[in-house]
Design brief:
Number of helices: 8
Strand content: 15-25%
Helix content: 25-40%
Number of domains: 1
Order of helices and strands: EHEHHEEEHEHEEEEEEHEEHEHE
Oligomer: single chain
Number of strands: 16
Distance between the termini: 24 Å
Largest sheet: 5 strands, parallel
Bound molecules: zinc ion
CATH topology: TIM Barrel
CATH architecture: Alpha-Beta Barrel
Length: 336
């Protein structure tokens, strides 16, 4: 009998969050379509975390703006298609979208004010409003029966959980996907501390995502692998070759630039499991991780992907499905 492996494929469906958002086509529509083409033959049930704070702003400017209207219609069409394929769609909030400026000349946004990056920076009423509006726009797009049972916080900033608990309760959210075990970041925007969490499997919790125990919520932690065994020289040569041969990322925006006060994570020789970090040199590392773990959660951003990432991802999936019996539906991975 083939071994059972649980693999969660999750994608943050969003634009860039810095000086230039990038275009909707290049950051979202095109790379997402490529990913769907890879997932479909295997009947994978992936999760798409949709930046609803962006969609709410975009929708507001569609009146009398043909480019914005076209972008919004394309997103709505793609989200409905994603839902039809059987994938999950859950909200993903970056409240600083409320401070973004639209630049009509390039049909992109500028996000330079990060003072409202975290939900924590809003007061209780504003948090409720932001979350309710997010659920409402997904309902409007996906139909009145749509239910946001899962959530991923923008920038992993799910702490303090007491900010979220009333919102989760109100909207029947039971599953969180924000924890990056072993990582800690305190910056002018993000704020999280998962340094004490070392678990690579779903666990229940009650009042604190970083404290596993009895409770009505389930955390699906993002997987973290050790990259110390990797041949960094080969990787550098590969990446250099890729950029020389014109295999650049789809996304055309700029990432958020923040002042980081404290950070632990990648420097310790670990990194999150992600399609945008996967390349030909790292493929054996990903397969080895799968061989030694029964649970593996990918966190990926379509805006960060190159054609090479997606091709390597397709090779990973083929090998995984050839070797193991694979479960991709998170609802079938619930802890007892
Ligand atoms: Zn995000």
């Amino acid at each position: 009998m083939t071994q059972l492996k649980n693999i969660l494929f999750t994608f943050d469906y969003e634009l860039f969050l810095g000086k230039r958002s990038g275009s909707v086509n290049r950051c979202v529509i095109e790379p997402t379509q490529k990913l769907l083409d890879v997932l479909s033959p295997y009947k994978i049930k992936a999760i798409f975390f949709v930046d609803t704070t962006w969609l709410l702003r975009l929708k507001k400017i569609t009146h009398g703006n043909a480019s914005a209207k076209n972008d919004y219609d394309n997103v709505v069409g793609q989200l409905r298609y994603i839902a039809k394929l059987g994938h999950y769609i859950f909200p993903h909030l970056h409240p600083h979208w409320n401070d973004a400026t639209y630049v009509p000349e390039i049909n992109q946004w500028q996000l330079i004010n990060y003072s409202r990056y975290r939900l924590h920076s809003l007061d209780k009423n504003e948090r409720e409003q932001c979350f309710s509006d997010s659920v409402a726009i997904l309902k409007e797009i996906l139909g009145p029966d749509y239910k946001p049972t899962g959530y991923r916080a923008g920038g992993w900033s799910i702490q303090p959980f007491e900010d979220f608990a009333p919102l989760f309760q109100q909207h029947s959210v039971k599953y969180d996907f924000s924890v990056l075990p072993g990582s800690k970041r305190i910056s002018s925007a993000q704020h999280y501390d998962f340094s004490d969490i070392k678990i690579n499997r779903p666990y229940t919790f009650s009042t604190d995502v970083a404290v596993p125990g009895k409770g009505s919520y389930t955390e699906f932690p993002i997987s973290v692998l050790s990259n110390t065994g990797i041949n960094t020289f080969s990787e550098k040569v590969l990446l250099k070759y890729m950029s020389w041969s014109g295999s650049n990322n789809y996304g055309d925006g700029q990432s958020i630039v923040v002042e980081t006060v404290e950070y632990t994570g990648a420097e310790n020789g670990t990194e999150m499991v992600s399609v945008e970090l996967l390349n030909a040199v790292k493929l054996p590392l990903y397969l080895k991780f799968l061989a030694t773990n029964n649970y593996m959660q990918f966190i990926s951003h379509p805006k960060m992907l190159s054609a090479h990432n997606i091709n390597t991802f397709a090779r990973f999936i083929k090998k995984a499905f050839d070797t193991y019996s694979i479960e991709t539906d998170f609802e079938k991975m619930l802890p007892e």
